[in-house]
């Protein structure tokens, strides 16, 4: 595993740098809100329920941040100086192609990224959230980052719903919830509600306090996190099942499809059963990222014929 140099960690584009900072701040802020405001209202300190939710929160936070950081730090790019032997070995191979920008013969499944200005091993796409390309070495961290982002947002929004709708009669009053109800009551057939009374009740509610604003913003961010992570997971899971990167999946070309288990290993590593626990658990990839052997058509047909024969015999 190679790490990117300090000079290459910071993205070139300003919006990508801001997105990285924004994600880090939002994740930590939402964790503080849930652990500092929501959790004490839902469970008493020291109870089994409180301890379980606290441990779950720490687990989700650590996996979101660690996978996010590792996705940025782990290097999937091709460095001609550090990989000279590999590049010279494949220079005369038919499967390799010339990159005019980098002036090297690049291995199969690699491509040049205009944003990073470098060739990337088994390049999938350039991620604006991390400011780097997702490729052979860091795809595992990208996938788990999106997975735990979805899981964390889902649990957080459920907890926030319980807190606001079931416990809002406690320390916090949420006028933003009652104001729409007052307005809608005028159009729901309640004749005792006239327009002046509705206006007066709306004025009495005054402006929302700081907790209402905080939770309104938090809800919006959580919904964005859920929708974005679901979109990314669903789109990439279809490609992972076929052992393909985005480009191969778009053109429906799956020359490296070796079954679900081996396809998952090519992305998550040989110890994929344990990688969900932490981003720091080592899981070596079965391929070096330079040499890929596509499945021959005859091999596929032979396997299909063998399966059909076995099925008929049974």
Average pLDDT taken over every residue? 81
Q: What is the strand arrangement across the widest sheet? A: 1-2
**General shape:** elongated
CA radius of gyration is 26 Å
Major β-sheet profile: 2 strands, antiparallel
Question: How many structural domains can be distinguished in the coordinates?
Answer: 2
DSSP summary, beta strand count: 6
Strand content: 5-15%
Question: Could you name the ranges where pLDDT drops below 50 across 5 or more consecutive residues?
Answer: 297-314
Question: Helices, strands, pairings?
Answer:
Blueprint: H1 6-9, H2 14-42, H3 48-73, H4 84-89, E1 97-99, E2 104-106, E3 111-113, E4 118-120, E5 125-127, E6 132-134, H5 139-167, H6 175-185, H7 195-205, H8 210-241, H9 246-250, H10 260-268, H11 297-313
Antiparallel strand pairs: 1-2, 3-4, 5-6
Commentary on this structure:
The structure is a single chain. With 314 residues, the protein is mainly α. The protein has two domains: 6-173 and 209-298, no CATH class; 181-208, no CATH class. It contains eleven helices and six strands. It has helices at 6-9, 14-42, 48-73, 84-89, 139-167, 175-185, 195-205, 210-241, 246-250, 260-268, 297-313, and strands at 97-99, 104-106, 111-113, 118-120, 125-127, 132-134. A two-stranded antiparallel sheet has the order 1-2. The protein is elongated and about 70 Å long. Mean pLDDT is 81; it is low at 297-314.
């Amino acid at each position: 595993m190679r790490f990117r140099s300090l000079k290459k960690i910071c993205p070139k584009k300003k919006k990508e740098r801001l997105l990285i900072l924004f994600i880090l701040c939002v994740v930590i802020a939402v964790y503080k809100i849930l652990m500092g405001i929501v959790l004490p209202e839902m469970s008493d300190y020291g109870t089994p329920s409180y301890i379980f939710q606290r441990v779950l929160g720490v687990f989700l936070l650590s996996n979101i941040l660690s996978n996010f950081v590792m996705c940025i730090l782990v290097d999937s790019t091709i460095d001609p100086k550090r990989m000279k032997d590999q590049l010279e070995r494949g220079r005369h191979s038919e499967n390799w192609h010339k990159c005019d920008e980098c002036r090297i013969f690049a291995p199969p499944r690699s491509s040049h990224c205009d944003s990073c200005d470098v060739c990337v091993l088994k390049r999938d796409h350039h991620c604006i959230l991390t400011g780097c390309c997702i490729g052979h070495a860091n795809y595992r961290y990208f996938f788990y980052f999106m997975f735990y982002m979805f899981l964390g947002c889902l649990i957080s929004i459920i907890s926030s719903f319980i807190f606001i709708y079931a416990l809002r009669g406690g320390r916090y009053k949420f006028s933003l919830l009652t104001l729409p109800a007052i307005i809608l009551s005028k159009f729901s057939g309640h004749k005792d509600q006239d327009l002046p009374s509705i206006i007066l009740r709306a004025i009495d509610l005054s402006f929302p306090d700081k907790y209402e604003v905080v939770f309104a913003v938090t809800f919006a961010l959580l919904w964005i996190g859920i929708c974005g992570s679901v979109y990314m997971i669903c789109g990439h899971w279809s490609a992972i099942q076929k052992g393909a990167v985005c480009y191969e999946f778009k053109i429906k070309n799956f020359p490296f499809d070796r079954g679900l288990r081996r396809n998952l290993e090519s992305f998550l590593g040989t110890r994929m059963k344990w990688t969900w626990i932490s981003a720091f658990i080592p899981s070596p990839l079965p391929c070096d990222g330079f040499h890929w052997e596509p499945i021959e058509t005859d091999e596929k047909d032979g396997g299909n014929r063998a399966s059909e024969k076995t099925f008929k015999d049974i």
